[in-house]
Every structure is written in structure tokens, then in C-alpha cells.
Amino acid sequence: MAQLSQQELDEIYAFALDIGKRAGKLLLDGVDKRIGGVDGSGELAFTEKDNAVDIVTKTDEDVETFIRSAIQERYPSHKFLGEESYSKGQSRHYLIDEKPTWCVDPLDGTVNYTHLFPMFCVSIGFIVNHRPVIGIINAPFMNQLFSSCAGRGAWLNERRQLPLIRNPSIPPMPANAPSKCIFSCEWGKDRRDTPDGNLHRKVESFVNMAAEIGGRGGKGGMVHGVRSLGSATLDLAYTAMGSLDIWWEAGCWEWDVAAGIAILQEAGGLVTTANPPEDPANAPIEEARLGSRLYLAIRPAGPSETETGRQTQERVVREVWRRVRALDYSRPGA
Amino acid sequence: MAQLSQQELDEIYAFALDIGKRAGKLLLDGVDKRIGGVDGSGELAFTEKDNAVDIVTKTDEDVETFIRSAIQERYPSHKFLGEESYSKGQSRHYLIDEKPTWCVDPLDGTVNYTHLFPMFCVSIGFIVNHRPVIGIINAPFMNQLFSSCAGRGAWLNERRQLPLIRNPSIPPMPANAPSKCIFSCEWGKDRRDTPDGNLHRKVESFVNMAAEIGGRGGKGGMVHGVRSLGSATLDLAYTAMGSLDIWWEAGCWEWDVAAGIAILQEAGGLVTTANPPEDPANAPIEEARLGSRLYLAIRPAGPSETETGRQTQERVVREVWRRVRALDYSRPGA
Questions:
Q1: Which PROSITE patterns does this chain map to (chains A, B) (predicted)?
Q2: I need a labelling partner for A279 at 20 to 30 A (CA). Which of A161, B126, B192, B268 fits?
Q3: What are the C-alpha distances in Å from B258 to residues A230, B102, B228?
Q4: A112 contacts in chain B (CB < 8 Å)
């Protein structure tokens, strides 16, 4: 089993931060190439006839190549898994083992990037013994760099520790959660209009979380707000920040979530499975399995007068499970 | 009828930009007071016992007072309507007439601000003859300042003209829209679980826009993405930017949209009513009436090979109307 000292981890963290910053710059360069420089007056690197999707694909591949090359040069013994390399291969089998592994999405929020909606980012996770221990998420259009290293805390722009509200104490989850919570969810790509298919199960779950207390046959959660950003990675980053209280999603791959889970867990958040167990009120709450494609994340929480922080989080997990439907996302070979 | 020269408008625009920047700084100061200074280590201006909602209310009121005072000092003859002043009064009647009027939301995205989710902003609109002619939207946590003045274009951070993709030409709306479009919508505050109430009509509309082509009895729109940000003002700003293609929402007030409409229209976007007319395919597409609480916005669009930009936008308006339900938002006294 691989063991890394804190000093080794710190060195890898510094390296990861550096490539995360440079990769974010490459994503912004890709924006500039499409709009003609910083003030829109420069020369376009692409002609009008270039398809926006092709341009985005090229940036995506270039950023992955940059990150992969940098890692292979510095840490030749480490494994590398990138979203782009997966997509081109025939298989989406789960490939992570106990060895030190980099799990990278060069461009998360691809649809957002295509449309130049700011919620896109590069996501770099470093995993040892199946556990994401370093996470870098750089959303350069919003000047937001999220990072964490096991034992070193989770940070926004290397300056503000996550969650943001922590002084004098991190607030517990609300007593009557999911009420007073911001609930983040995504519509995803599976839009088949199949009776009881994923789309309809998701929407039923969203409405249960949103509807007034007493509505939906007692399932109404009256959340404070429902948000959909189009980036699983940033959903996790904002949950670590404490800005989103609950994130519930299925269908994402390990490169979408590896860095986000590292940051969320280092900040004190909880991540478990999206699909409710048979007995939501009493089932054990296990850590989400990377590669499971089913995630429910709860923000960092401190103690209330009667509960530990973890107890307030687990209470919310059960309240969400009570309101959501199981989703059907398997993976080839799994 | 009030008439202002371009020079007068330019002066008002410079003034509005200045107070928009200063108001954005006040919103960030409010964040710092809650998390203890820029690095989280400073002294908290509020104690643990202060309710987050009360703190937000105080910031909201302070920012409105700042903006109102600045305007009254510089332009004592102008009318001023602020979200906070409305809320405290008994009436929500529509108060805008042909006189030069400032319509201000000191803090749009209040729920986001309470949770420190970055999608909050100050919104300052200046209206003459019922038409928003100057708009300032400052989202300081993301370093995004949107602005426009009639005749001077719409801008991001005073540097990048909107829409962002405009060189060598602004793209038309997609041929098969709403497919390939990002659709932005909000769940809002009306969560009553009433059969055929606003919540269920909204959700039915969202699902129609999202579902696969051929689904939903032919209404499936298969949009590229569905987004919910929790700020009507920023929805409009991002539509002006070209990042969101379609925004459909009801229930917002004039202070939520005045600045956003100014910016969207100056950028070349279209804004009309959310509620589909009896004959969506042929009804005239009229400009949204400020105060109507019903809005459908389409991003700026250039010509295709067979259509003008406006024609591509109007085609999308009709495609949206075909898929959405009419919503019930009246106003007291209207």
C-alpha cells in the first residue's frame, strides 16, 4: 500500500497548485482566441467557420496534454487518468487502484465553456489508496481557485479557508433542513422521456425538495433555493465553501468529482451515495465510493446545542434520501 | 416628455458606474464582516448570535441608503425607487412614469448572499420615458461588472463588449433552437403544491424544454443545458453576454430587471413576455412591459444565411412559447 509523508504530499500539492494555475490560464487563452483578445479587438485565432464545439474540444485536449506531460515529467511513477483519454478509449471501466493516481478533468462544465458561461473549470485530483487527498479546482473566468491537501485545509484563492463561515464557529446544518438549505442539482444529459426514467425520477426528486412543507404527501422540503450550475466539480467546490448546503447528482464520472471530493472532505463536508437505501432512517451512512457515479454531498457543519456537526449532516442525508428517487446509472463492466 | 442629450446620458452613466462600483464594495465589506476580514483572521463585526438573515437585511438597507443618498445629492430632480423602500411600504403598485427614474435593487440574489454563494449583485437601472437606458450590475464576488448606456454599448468590466462573441460576427440563434441553447430558469418562491399552480406549471415547462426531441408529445426541446442561478438580474446579464441563450421567468419586480433589461437591449438582446399568447406561432412579439412581472429574454443574435438576427430571435421566442405554460403573477392593484 502506498504511503506518502506529509512532506511528500506538500511537495505534490505545491506542484498541483502550479499546474492548476497554468491550466486555468490555458482555458482563458481559449476564451481569448474565440473573442479576439482581452478587449475583443485582437486577432481571432479561429475563423468564423470553425465550429465552437471543435474549438472547445481542441482546448480540452490541449489542457489535458499539458497536465499529463507535466505530471509524467515530474512524477513518472504516478498513474494518470484524464477525462479526454477515457473518452477516446473504448472502455469506461473504473481504473483507479491503490497506487498514487492523478485524476484530471481538463475542462469541467464543457457546455458552459462552449457558451462562455463562467461556470467552467479545470479539476485536478490526486488519489492515494482510493482516497482523494489533493484537489485543485480553478475557475479562471471568476478568479476562483479552490485547493486542498490532506492535513493542510481547504482554501479559496490560497487565502480564505473553507468553509468561509468558520469564525467563531462553523454553523450546524439547519434544525429543520432541508428547509433553509440551498439545494444544488443538475439536469444532466439523460433526457429520455421514458416513464419513470432518470429524467422523471430526477424531476420528481427536485420537486419534492422544493415544494412547501406539507406538500407532496409530506415530502415537501421547502429548500431555500434550487441551483443548477452545469458543473459537478464546481457544485462540490461551492458545497465545500459552505455556499451550497446539499448537492445531489448521479451520472458523473470520477474525473468530475475526484478533486471536489478531496476539497469537500478536507473542509469537513460529507459525501455519500445519492440513491436512498431501503431504510433511509436507519441505514449506515457510508462514504461515497469513487467511481460509483452516485453522489450526495453535505456542506461542512459544526455542532448544534444537541448534536455533533456530523450528526447534523447525517440528519440531512436522511432527510434528502426520504425525498429523492434512486437513479439508474451503471457503468460498462461494473 | 423627458428628453436627455447623449452628453447628459454619458454624465449620468459615469456617475452610475461610480456608485455601482462603490456599492459592490459595500456588499463585499458585508461578506468580510461575516467571515472575519479578507483572510478570515480579522475581527468579526457581528457576533455569533447575530442572525445571518438580519445581517443581510442590514447590508441590503445600508447599500440602498448609500445609493439613494448619492443620487438625491447629485440629481435631486430624479425619482428613486428601491427594492428596500418598496418592501417596507404597503403597496407594490407600479410607480414608474415618464420622468427620469432610478430603479435599484441594492442586493439581488439575497438567498445567494445569505449563503455566500457568489451569484449576488447590486443592480442600478436608470429609466426615461419608461425605457431602461442605463444599467449597472456589479457582482463583486466574481469580479464581474456589467454596464450599458443607450448609444454606448454594453460591457463587461468596461473592457469587453457584449455579447462576448461578436468578432467577426454575432452568431445567429441555432437553426434548431431551443436545441443547442442554454435555458435559464428559476424555481422562485411560490412553492405551493397546488394542482396546476405556478410551481407545477413551471416544472412542466422546464421538462418540456429539457426533454429529448420527440418526447413530451412533440414538445421536447432538448436544450443544451438548464441553469438556475437564483438571481434574475444576473440571468439577464449573462443573457446579454451571450452565455445564456434563453431566460424565462415570472414573478420578478421591476428593480430585479430594470438594469438587466437596459444591458440586454443595448447588447442587442430581445425581451418580451413569458406567457404564451393564444397563437404563439403568429402573435406579434412585443417588448416586455416593465412592471409586468413576466419576462422572456433571448440573447443578442446576428443574421443567419436566411434570416435577420431579429428573425432568429423571434423564431426562438415562438419555440419557447410553444413549450411553456402561462404563469399567474399579478400585482396588487394591477
A1: IMP_1, IMP_2
A2: B192
A3: 27, 9, 20
A4: 182, 225, 243
